[in-house]
């Protein structure tokens, strides 16, 4: 995790704007879990907020409700197999960190593990909205820390040096695609 640089919180939304699959880590009462989540999106700039859909039947939901915090991580293409594995198993039935031999460290601002080797991290505190959580499984959270691998995200932009360092997007049935080629468009004068 040597190449991590802080991302200004007002720019944290740029880490999620391209809609990648994510890993969500959480911990409560000494029990930790990691799950895959595709339904995560930026919500606001200042303070930065995001939305996360957490089905009421997931083990992570129980931990997030207990702790009030979680971490969103952006895995790379080289972590697609891990992403599928943690998204296809139940943390209430097994310790995914042990079962899949997941290297991990600790979050900087919240009480949760972080999966080593991810491209970016957003540490979050839940903003309690019981109606949204119960009716829609929708969690609103404030981003309290954001950092990314400077080799793929710097100066507010994603730039992928190789195929294995791209963010991934889950379709279904084990099918992913990697983020494509970036290009710039100059706004035409009116």
From TrEMBL:
Coiled coil: none
Protein name (Swiss-Prot/TrEMBL): NADH-FMN oxidoreductase RutF, flavin reductase (DIM6/NTAB) family
InterPro entries the UniProt entry points to: Flavin_Rdtase-like_dom (IPR002563), Flavoredoxin (IPR052174), Split_barrel_FMN-bd (IPR012349)
Gene3D superfamilies referenced in this protein's UniProt entry, alphabetically: Electron Transport, Fmn-binding Protein, Chain A (2.30.110.10)
Cofactor: FMN
A Pfam entry, by short name: Flavin_Reduct
Matching PANTHER family: FLAVOREDOXIN (PTHR43567:SF1), FLAVOREDOXIN-RELATED-RELATED (PTHR43567)
Source organism (scientific name): Pseudomonas delhiensis
Similarity field: Belongs to the flavoredoxin family.
Keywords assigned by UniProt, alphabetized: Flavoprotein
Domain Flavin reductase like: 14-160
SUPFAM superfamilies cross-referenced by the UniProt entry: FMN-binding split barrel (SSF50475)
GO MF entry, a single one: FMN binding
């Amino acid at each position: 995790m040597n190449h991590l640089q802080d991302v200004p919180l007002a720019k944290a939304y740029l880490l999620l704007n391209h809609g990648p699959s994510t890993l969500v880590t959480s911990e409560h009462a000494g029990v930790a879990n990691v799950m895959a989540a595709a339904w995560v999106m930026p919500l606001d700039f200042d303070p930065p907020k995001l939305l996360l859909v957490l089905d009421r039947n997931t083990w992570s939901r129980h931990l997030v409700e207990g702790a009030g915090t979680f971490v969103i991580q952006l895995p790379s293409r080289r972590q697609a197999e891990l992403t599928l594995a943690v998204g296809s198993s139940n943390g209430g039935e097994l310790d995914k960190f042990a079962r899949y031999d997941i290297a991990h460290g600790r979050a900087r601002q919240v009480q949760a593990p972080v999966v080593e080797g991810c491209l970016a991290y957003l540490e979050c505190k839940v903003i309690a909205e019981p109606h949204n959580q119960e009716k829609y499984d929708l969690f609103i959270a404030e981003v309290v820390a954001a950092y990314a691998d400077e080799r793929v995200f710097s100066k507010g932009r994603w730039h992928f040096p190789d195929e294995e360092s791209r963010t991934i997007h889950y379709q279904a049935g084990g099918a992913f695609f990697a983020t494509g080629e970036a290009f710039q468009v100059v706004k035409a004068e009116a």
